[in-house]
Amino acid sequence: MSKSPLSINLCGIEFKNPIITASGTFGYGIEYSRFIDINKLGGISVKGISLKETSGNKMPRIMETNAGMLNAIGLQNVGVEKFIKEKLPILKKYDTKIIVNFWGKSVEEYVEVAKILDNENVDMLEMNISCPNIKEGGIAFGTDPKMTYTVVYETKKAIKNKPLIVKLSPNVTDIKIFGKMAQEAGADAISAINTLLGMAINIETKKPYISNITGGLSGPAIKPVAIRMVYELFKTVDIPIIGIGGIMNYKDVIEFYLAGAKAVQIGTANFVNPEISLKIIDDLEKYMADKNIENITDFTGKVEI
Amino acid sequence: MSKSPLSINLCGIEFKNPIITASGTFGYGIEYSRFIDINKLGGISVKGISLKETSGNKMPRIMETNAGMLNAIGLQNVGVEKFIKEKLPILKKYDTKIIVNFWGKSVEEYVEVAKILDNENVDMLEMNISCPNIKEGGIAFGTDPKMTYTVVYETKKAIKNKPLIVKLSPNVTDIKIFGKMAQEAGADAISAINTLLGMAINIETKKPYISNITGGLSGPAIKPVAIRMVYELFKTVDIPIIGIGGIMNYKDVIEFYLAGAKAVQIGTANFVNPEISLKIIDDLEKYMADKNIENITDFTGKVEI
Amino acid sequence: MKGKVVSNTKLNDKYYLMEIECEEFVNKAKPGHFMMVKAQQYDYLYDPLLRRPFGVCDIERGRFKILYVLIGKGTNLLSQIKINSTIEFSEPLGNTFKYNGGKKVAMVGGGVGIAPLLFLARYLKNQGTEIDLYYGGKTEDDILMIDEFKKYCSHIIVTTENGKVGQKGIVTEPLQKNILQYDKIYACGPKKMLEATTKIAVENKIPIEVSLDERMACGMGACLGCLIYLKNDNGEIEQKRCCVEGPVFDGSKIVWSNQ
Amino acid sequence: MKGKVVSNTKLNDKYYLMEIECEEFVNKAKPGHFMMVKAQQYDYLYDPLLRRPFGVCDIERGRFKILYVLIGKGTNLLSQIKINSTIEFSEPLGNTFKYNGGKKVAMVGGGVGIAPLLFLARYLKNQGTEIDLYYGGKTEDDILMIDEFKKYCSHIIVTTENGKVGQKGIVTEPLQKNILQYDKIYACGPKKMLEATTKIAVENKIPIEVSLDERMACGMGACLGCLIYLKNDNGEIEQKRCCVEGPVFDGSKIVWSNQ
Ligand SMILES: Cc1cc2nc3c(=O)[nH]c(=O)nc-3n(C[C@H](O)[C@H](O)[C@H](O)COP(=O)(O)OP(=O)(O)OC[C@H]3O[C@@H](n4cnc5c(N)ncnc54)[C@H](O)[C@@H]3O)c2cc1C
Ligand SMILES: Cc1cc2nc3c(=O)[nH]c(=O)nc-3n(C[C@H](O)[C@H](O)[C@H](O)COP(=O)(O)OP(=O)(O)OC[C@H]3O[C@@H](n4cnc5c(N)ncnc54)[C@H](O)[C@@H]3O)c2cc1C
Ligand SMILES: Cc1cc2nc3c(=O)[nH]c(=O)nc-3n(C[C@H](O)[C@H](O)[C@H](O)COP(=O)(O)O)c2cc1C
Ligand SMILES: Cc1cc2nc3c(=O)[nH]c(=O)nc-3n(C[C@H](O)[C@H](O)[C@H](O)COP(=O)(O)O)c2cc1C
Ligand code: FES
Ligand code: FES
Predict the structure, then answer these.
(1) CATH class, D2-88 region
(2) Check: CATH 3.40.50.80 for C104-213?
(3) Atom of ligand 3 nearest to the CA of A218
(4) Does pTM top 0.80 for this prediction?
């Protein structure tokens, strides 16, 4: 058994382990390099990139809630050009897979960003159709099945080289429909979930804690919703699912696998402890060895009903 | 100023305070009478009643999650007849408002239960179109705008005496649509939110912690989602909104008021501390006095954007 | 209710014994009762959220004891509580073991299920009942408080699966042999053990009461989260709340397949 | 990083001073640095979830100090931490105050904003700089560690809004009078005070550095939750991360209306 129990193949890309840092919680990867050994990570999904540099929402943008947090960063990013010129070269020095999370305000913008990235030295593209924190685009694409189909279809058609992950919004009545749409439109994988739309009000100032009024809820609080959605998606689609939402430790990872995940992303947990993703990898290795499991994907979808 | 700052009028019914225990978390009121003084409560929303006695889902039915819990009780109840004969007479001895939460598997069942209760000595009816834990009815009515309209319309038409509260599901893409439908169909008030659909898996047994597979997520974890939805509803409807979701203390109550609530319900918190609703009432009284507020409804919808 | 933690002793890697001072609680507690304990010590923190149910292990001089085994968040947090802290808990909840005047009874305990039997033993001994204790564990770590039980029990038969203390095997084996000596059986422990014990009792027409565990949210009958299925005299299955109609049930009525 | 809590002293109803032993941290810390502290002591509990930012108040003999004021969950939980506990925190983060060789400087602190100035004072004094401290508070409770500052400062001018200690009023009033004596101003405190102090400094063409607070999730530049708006030399507004490019900024560049 020379292959590591944690190594996975996601849409043809070999990951040394299934632990990917979630978009928006790990910057461009570079920010954490002073604190942890990036080379140990399975992959990094970078902060959502758009065609043009975007300054995001007004401050304040974050607030802690019970076992979770709200954010309304508003997809601030350096734009695809600067990303390729300034961030990617540094990122590529690390031995980890690079997933570029991206978004647009129109189908055309999604297509254009994807086309540019398709020819760059990155491993996968992750289409964010689910950000609750921008007015145009974002979540609108992710909460209307037809728009989901169109934007995924057009983007997939436009790219040749990279597998396309579609990141779904949990703020929908029936996530299964969106999973199906994404698959039919050509998505190579699904990642789920993005944040739940939430709000918190400061009773002293009477103002929302987040200037954008509402923000995206993440962290352990939302894990049950995420597990349910990954489970529903696994029963619906054939393409691989990347589980996201409130993962804090290796047990949570296994829970996502049982629900149907083939890989996972760690988000808010990185803020709580920058070393958490590495710890999860170590703990999973031990768990696989203890339980004598050949590969972690043996758990995928193996919840017993 | 002889009127208490906490007294409210909800659809013509005078509540001595706006603290109502939420359906399913306070039994038929009687269960807690050994432990706390029921007479101090503004109101009690009883466990969801249906036409016939219902035995609910298989065990296990509950599990704790991070700052929340999942439940899939499956609306177990004694049926409307037994409720009226056995439970209501005891309940009516207390000086508190009785809200009867009810549900059906078809429009006809909703109508029939409502008609029966309309002639009983209860104060308000609360229609649960949002329970995620039963196969037929329940959430199906609450996640399809047309069905929401129909079931509310038919029920409202059939009753003459009691105000009708419609309890909305948070498991929808756009809660505003459902608020509008309920209002147009004749609802006198809205209560929001019911539980979020969630799931948790035991990684040792590989089985879901809840035999029903999925369950409803409640508790502090969901408060930001609830606040957001109450805020959205307040901007959309003119009828009063009863805020529910993760309230643990008087500050949470004020937060719901600022978002748009005219009354609130306390759910999971009753499990954490059976005296919590009384403590919240005391604390609110102090807060009103300290801040010299004439009536708590002065806060309704007063979030400053 | 509130009480002062007088001791919180690590017995071994799995078990702790906590002693809490609270006159009011002690005055109300009867063998079989449990209480809901707030593991989270700060009212402003919500993880863990719910209270945790524990049986009354014993009472003595204004204090009650909880014997607990480390499982997850709640019990781990309890194990961190410092002596002299104040802790919150409900009053004694649920029903109690019944004493029907039998002359000689067997108590069957498995693992942490031994907890409520100590209080029961003290009580039965006071009534002049003779008690034999059958006490099973996986390993020697599961065998606790033998000295306490010695005060009340005529015979103590210990079994462990690894055979390190007592007889090697499971506790129903010696019970089976002696069963006809007893007027009544009281049991608490893992479900499999309780089912097997009940089978022996029923086969020999000996009354049996068992104390059951279920996940609980409220502990006071409101949430309907803790059901136990009983077969009534007409053969119909009835739902009972473990927290109100239990935790002690007539073993012969329990529908084991549903538990 | 981890360290041992050597003391955690209640100074008054609002303020606590915690001393933590950690050679590694102390060796890296410079005046202006902050660190993210894990208030929740159990890895398996998620409320409070995020770490909390605090300035390095002082370092001495392998220990560093945090002066903190009780606000909410995190700080209340910190205040409960027992001596000799191990506590987790990040390494020293952010940028530092700059020392430009001035002969005489003013430090302006408000409330808990005094915290990072103590470390700075120690450092500047070592460089041979003369320091005047302007220290404002709402009440006498906000005036702390005067004895410590006395070691490094030539003059200490205290103001409180209620006038119970020092002069009655706000700290910018005495500063305004003496402003021309100083080569540089360092300030930390409530935003209104910082804005007013900056105005005085800029009007008198005196360089000013201020340390700012923003809510932080990561503290290491990844979440973009902690932005500060600066006006650059071309008059364009730039976004800077308080946790990486800050917390110390050239006061004259801060766009106060956006903070
Ligand atoms: C009537 C009654 C009496 C009990 N008496 C004792 C006793 O004397 N000593 C003792 O050690 N244990 C006893 N238990 C079991 C004890 O309640 C659980 O071990 C404890 O709740 C585990 O909590 P945790 O947070 O450590 O575990 P977690 O697994 O983190 O708990 C998660 C959730 O599951 C519930 N849960 C987990 N295990 C059990 C269980 N076995 N029974 C019921 N709920 C569970 C918890 O209450 C909580 O809601 C009793 C249970 C009941 C119902
Ligand atoms: C660089 C920096 C240095 C600081 N140095 C100190 C110091 O030396 N002493 C001190 O007492 N305080 C300091 N603060 C403020 C301190 O971080 C907050 O008081 C603390 O986070 C409050 O946490 P809480 O859980 O008690 O409050 P809660 O209100 O419960 O916190 C809720 C959330 O809001 C955030 N928050 C609340 N108040 C503030 C604030 N003023 N600034 C930033 N985030 C806040 C919390 O971090 C948390 O995420 C500093 C802040 C920053 C950014
Ligand atoms: C501060 C912050 C910024 C985020 N930015 C993005 C983003 O740019 N693109 C995206 O697809 N998701 C973004 N997310 C969502 C996360 O990638 C993840 O889906 C979500 O936080 C749930 O996972 P968690 O609970 O582990 O954090 C962001 C989340 C946070 C907390
Ligand atoms: C155990 C349990 C049972 C419930 N049963 C019902 C019910 O019968 N009818 C209903 O409308 N809501 C029911 N609910 C939902 C609550 O009334 C409430 O809407 C929800 O729990 C959110 O509030 P909370 O976070 O304060 O608990 C139930 C909730 C719980 C936890
Ligand atoms: S625990 Fe709630 S009814 Fe038994
Ligand atoms: S706190 Fe995350 S970028 Fe500054």
Answers:
(1) mainly beta
(2) yes
(3) 25
(4) yes
